[in-house]
Amino acid sequence: MTKRDRPLSPHIQIYKMPFTAVLSISHRITGVVMAVGTAVLAYWLVAAASGPDSFATAQAVLGSVPGRILLFGWSLALFYHLCNGIRHMFWDAGLGFEIRDAQRSGLATVAAALVLTALAWTIGF
Q: Membrane-spanning regions, if any (predicted)?
């Protein structure tokens, strides 16, 4: 086998992203999503302070189906980021570094984020 015949490694057709790497990337993405959500919250608060017409417009936008989907996504991002931040606090204390522990805590993070989001939306409605 010559040097030219060897595949590049790892290439996208065979590389499987580790679960912990997906969680790490997701943590960063949810941080950005929360920043956008904070801007939307600021818009809603300014609309509330600007008077009934502005507030009615903001409520119509955020109360629409696409608005509620975005709000759901933002709340999921918030709870995921919160739970993963708690996971990182355990790591800062030196706990959970083994691969098996990291995968278990990652699954617990995702499950907790889903449960907390569902709970918040259930209580909200």
A: 21-45, 65-83, 104-123
Which two three-digit tokens encode residue 16?
């499987």
In this prediction the pTM is 0.85
**pLDDT tens-digit profile of 38-91?**
999 999 999 999 999 999 999 999 999 999 999 999 999 999 999 999 999 999
**Cα 3 to Cα 77: distance, rounded to the nearest angstrom:** 45
Look up the CATH number of the domain holding residue 72. 1.20.1300.10
13, part of any domain: no
In a domain, 9, yes or no: no
Overall size of the chain counted in residues: 125
Residue recorded with tokens 């119509």: 60
Give the number of domains in the chain.
Answer: 1
